[in-house]
Amino acid sequence: MMARSDFKIIVVGAGPAGLLLALLLSKQGISVTVLDGADGLDPRPRATHYGPPAVRELRRAGVMDDVLAAGFQPGKICWRKLDGTYLTGLDNNVLGENHPDRVACLPLDQLGPIIAAHLAKQTTAEVKWGHRVTGLGGQDDQKAWVDVLMTGGDGQTTAKRLEADYIVGCDGANSQIRRSLHGDLNFPGKTWDEQLVATNVYYDGFGDYEDANFIIDKEHWHMASRISTDGMWRVTYGEPAGLSHDELRARQPAKFEAMLPGHPKPADYKLANFSPYRVHQRLAPKMRVGRFLLAADAAHLCNPFGGLGLTGGIVDVGGLSDCLYGIYSGQVSNPDAILEVYDQVRRQKYAEMVDPISSENFVRLSSDPDTVLSGGEDKFLTLCLKAEKDEEFAREMALGINELLYDFTQHFDLKKGRE
Ligand SMILES: Cc1cc2nc3c(=O)[nH]c(=O)nc-3n(C[C@H](O)[C@H](O)[C@H](O)COP(=O)(O)OP(=O)(O)OC[C@H]3O[C@@H](n4cnc5c(N)ncnc54)[C@H](O)[C@@H]3O)c2cc1C
C-alpha cells in the first residue's frame, strides 16, 4: 500500500466544518486547499454547544485542549415553565469531570480561530481567502475542477479553474456546490414559520437557572444558556415570521422583560449580540456526486434547539476524512463504494436522528407546559424523568447521541484503519 504523493483535496468553505476537515486531512499528510469567498473568518457567534460525537472528532483533530481552555463543560440542561418552575432535565455531571466525550461550550466565533490556528501549522494545508467558487467546472475519472473568482488586495477579480482528486463543499447553507450539483431550489425539507432571534447577553439575574434552560410556553418559548465563564448567556427566542430586523429589535426589550427571571429592563443587562435567523430542516438529495462531496450545512440544516447543526456537520467531516484517508493511503481499492457509503450513512443519520430530535425539541417549546409531563406522551421528557432517578440510565442518555458516529474504516480493504 502506497500513499499517493499527487493526491489533493479542495475544500470549499473555511467555516468550522471546512477548516476541521482540512485539519484532519492535513494531519495525515494529505495536500488540501481551502477556498473561501470571504476575506476572513465569519465573526457571527452562532453555534455554542458541541455534543459528544463532535467533541470526539475535535479531540481527534487535537484542538479539544484549546477549546476547553477557552470554553467549559456545561452541567445540567433542563426544561422549565415561564415562571421558572423546573420540569425535568439531564445532568451531564453524571459523566464525571474528565469524561472525554462531555458536551463542550464555546461560541463559534472563538472555535473557528482555534481550528484555523492549528491548521496554519500544517505544511500540507493552505487557506485561500477571497476565492469564491462560482460553479462546478466538471469532473472525469481522474479529477474534478471548480470555477473560482479570485479577488485581489486591489479589489480586482480574476477567474480561474482549480482541480483536485476530490472537491468537498463545506460552503454553508447557501452552498454553491450543492446548488450546482442539485439545482438552486433542490434542497428538500421545510422552513419553520417562526423566525428565531439569537442574543448574547450579560445579565446576572438568572438565579437558580441551570447551565442550559429550555422554557416551554405558548407565547414566550425560549432557551437561556450560559455560554462563557465570564457571565455571558445566549437567549434565543421565537418571533412571528414577517417582522423586519428593525421591528424585531424594537420588540426585544419587551420580550426580555416578559421572558427572563426578574423581568429586567434594558438598564439591567448588557446586550452583546442580536441576530435574527430563519430556521430550516433540509437535507440534500445526495451528499456525493462522483468526485464532488457535501458536508455540514452545505448538506443539511436543522433548527438550533437540539445543538445538532454543527455537531452533525463535525461528525460528517470526521467520517469523510477517514474515507478520503483510506483512498489516499491505498487502503480502499474501491473509492466509489466507500464514498457511496458516506452518502448513505450521513443522510440516514440526519433523517433518523438530527431531524427528528431537533424538530421535536423545537415543537416541545411551544407546547402546553402544564400537560407536557402528563400521560407520558412526550417520550423524551419521560425518559429524562426516569434518568433523574437512575444514574446509569442518565449516563446512557447523555451519550446516546454518539449513535451519530459511524466507523468508515470498517470498509477499508484490510480493516486496518487509521492510526
Ligand atoms: C443561532 C444559532 C445557534 C446555533 N447553535 C448551535 C449549537 O449550539 N450547536 C451546533 O452544533 N450547531 C449550532 N448552530 C448551527 C451551526 O452554527 C452551523 O451548523 C455551522 O455554523 C455550519 O458550519 P459550516 O462550516 O457548515 O458552514 P458556515 O459556517 O456557514 O461556513 C461556510 C463558509 O463557506 C464560505 N462560502 C460560502 N459560499 C462560498 C463560495 N461560493 N465560495 C467559497 N466560499 C464560500 C463562507 O464564506 C463561510 O466561510 C447554530 C446556528 C445558529 C444560527
From TrEMBL:
SUPFAM superfamilies associated with the record: FAD/NAD(P)-binding domain (SSF51905)
Domain FAD-binding span(s) in chain numbering: 8-355
Signal sequence region: none
Alphabetized GO MF terms: FAD binding; oxidoreductase activity
One Pfam family hit: FAD_binding_3
Highest taxon of source: Eukaryota
This protein's UniProt keywords: FAD, Flavoprotein, NAD, Oxidoreductase
Transmembrane helix as UniProt keyword: no
InterPro entries assigned to the protein according to its UniProt record, in alphabetical order: FAD-bd (IPR002938), FAD/NAD-bd_sf (IPR036188), PheA/TfdB_FAD_monoxygenase (IPR050631)
Cited Gene3D superfamilies: 3.30.70.2450, FAD/NAD(P)-binding domain
Protein known as: FAD-binding domain-containing protein
